[in-house]
Amino acid sequence: MTETKLNYIAGDWVAGSAEITNINPSDLSDVVGIFAQASGDQLETALDAARHAQAEWAAYGLERKQNVLMAIGNELMARAEELGTLLSREEGKPLAEGKGEVFRAGQFFTYFAAEVLRQIGDTADSTRDGIEVDVRREPVGVVAIISPWNFPTATASWKIAPALAFGNAVLWKPANVTPASAVALTEIIARQDIPKGLFNLVMGAGRDVGQRLVESPKVNAISFTGSVPVGKGIAAAAIQNLTKVQMEMGSKNALAVMDDADIDLAVTLALGGAFGGTGQKCTASSRLVVHQAVHDAFVAKLVAGAKAMKVGHALAEGTQIGPVVSEQQLNENLAYVAKGQAEGAELACGGGRVSRDTDGYFMSPGVFLNTTNDMTINREEMFAPLAAVIKVGSYDEALHVVNDTRFGLTSGIVTKSLARATHFRRNARTGCVMVNLATAGTDYHVPFGGRGDSSYGPREQGAYAAEFYTTVKTAYISSGSPE
User: Fold this and answer.
1) What are 480's strand-pairing partners?
2) Is 381 a catalytic residue?
3) What is the mean pLDDT of residues 170-191?
4) Strands (E), 160-263
5) Catalytic residue among 248, 381, 432, 460
6) pLDDT tens for residues 13-40?
7) Cβ atoms of residues 154 and 87 within 8 Å
8) Within 13 Å, how many C-alpha atoms sit on residue 54's CB side?
9) Beta strands, E only, 189-269
10) How far, CA to CA in Å, does 76 sit from each of 160, 190, 313?
11) How far is CA 248 from CA 147, 266, 452, 456, in A?
């Protein structure tokens, strides 16, 4: 019998009101585990415990808090191979990516461990004589974290680490598709020197546990990564309690390849950006905007490169593209392939389900040609190993196409021109801009986020995280007369 993995609520591991079975998308006969689903009553218990624990945690000494975060980060990095293997097994990304994600998650915690000691306020003289002003940041309170399945450890960590570093309590609802990684991270956090109830893992369906969580007046802030429709629903619920929100949502990122581009570099960036992680990244470059002067040469190498990519079991040596995360996601991807062809796009390669030695949700990387920016495949986020080439006649047209979207997370340009690169960097309407780099891939010590429908609220990561996880207090102090 497989042992059921439990929720972590108010300092205890507890069974839930129901259970789900987690299946390996690389091998549907492989049961990763059985996971408890939290009940509404358990959620209320967690919320009440978090509020009491937060006050205790905020009063911890700085070095005591720093030691907790450093220990979490160091253990994640030390166990990157073990936990990365578990991550790849349940999510489907190639093993190297799984191990890299866990190691990066550890870096988030060690970075914010250092930030614990950098919480320095401001002072000023008042406009009134004999009065000084002290400005500092304080914890926002109880933070609800709702994280996605595509980066089950890293995305959660870049939310949990700053929440704890700035003195908050956490209720974490991970994606139900990847609960094993959530339990593994929680086990590490639960062993640390933290107050009982400070950190809570509440696994469950978004429509149930997630909805009750975002509607609760006991939550002070909500950090969410997921789809635009769900994000809008969270915002609507949060406003009823004036709860602070931070949301990273959809994207439709474009990589512009100019007539002076290094074609081999451009192809490498496009293949990695579009198909890395099976295209299941919010930073994936699903639109390839290519200057007509290099279009044919670029397309020939792109299609050849896509055909050569090895699709297989996430844990198998040499796998470059693992399975799609679930049957539902695979069906959605195949529907986009059909939609693209129905609207006139040419499918140059891939885009179909493929068979391997094990029964899994494998899909070959697909490249669409002869597309226009008004096609559905270029308007909606597909979250699939699919890329569409859009031919343009000039740099100005390329920039217009890049910006012609309701999203605005990342964009990139491949060019040897400093003038073009500078103009693009200043005029691309995205939160992150890449020059001669793939649209996917960001650092942990600088802000991350987008514009338009991609993001709402303060930025994530780096020192900018303080904007969301803290609230500012301004104090006025009268020194009185020196006589």
Assistant:
1) none
2) no
3) 97
4) 169-173, 199-201, 221-225, 244-248, 254-257
5) 248
6) 999 999 999 999 999 999 999 999 999 9
7) no
8) 27
9) 199-201, 221-225, 244-248, 254-257
10) 14, 13, 24
11) 10, 27, 11, 7
Q: CA-CA distance, 355 to 353, in Å (whole number)?
A: 7
Length of the chain as a residue count: 483
How far is residue 385's CA from residue 225's CA, in Å, rounded to a whole number? 20
The pLDDT of residue 483: 63
pTM of the model: 0.96
CA 269 to chain CA mean position, Å: 20
Give tens-digit pLDDT for 357-382.
999 999 999 999 999 999 999 999 99
Active-site annotation holder among 75, 101, 282, 381: 282
Distance (Å, rounded) from C-alpha 384 to C-alpha 458? 28
Q: What pLDDT is attached to residue 208? A: 83
Q: What is the pLDDT of residues 400-455, one digit of tens each?
A: 999 999 999 999 999 999 999 999 999 999 999 999 999 988 899 999 999 999 99
> DSSP letter string over 374-439?
TSHHHHS---SSEEEEEEESSHHHHHHHHH-SS--SEEEEE-S-HHHHHHHHHH--SSEEEESS-S
Whether residue 352 contacts residue 364, with contact meaning beta carbons closer than 8 Å, is answered with: yes
Q: Is the pLDDT of residue 481 over 90?
A: no
The answer to whether the CB of 10 falls within 8 A of the CB of 200 is yes
Q: Which tokens sit at 74?
A: 């160091």
- Calculated CA dihedral for residues 312, 315, 316, 321, nearest 10 degrees: 30
282 has catalytic annotation: yes
What is the rounded distance in angstroms from the CA atom of residue 413 to the CA atom of residue 396? 12
Q: In this predicted structure, what is the pLDDT of residue 57? A: 98
**pLDDT averaged over the chain?**
96
* Domain edges within the chain: 4-249, 254-435
Q: Are 91 and 150 in contact (CB under 8 A)?
A: yes
pLDDT at 1: 58
Q: What integer pLDDT is reported at residue 482 of this predicted model?
A: 63
User: Which CATH class for the 4-249 domain?
Assistant: alpha beta
Tokens of 324: 């799609």
CA distance 382 to 333: 7
Residue type, 271: L
Q: Which burial class, exposed, middle or buried, applies to 304 when counting CB atoms under 10 A from its CB (0-12, 13-18, 19+)?
A: exposed
Contact 389, 286 (CB under 8 A): no
Estimate the crossing angle of helix 95-115 against helix 62-78, to 10 degrees: 170
Domain 254-435 grouped into CATH 1.10.10.10: no
Beta bridge partners of 390: 289
Mean pLDDT of 213-234: 96
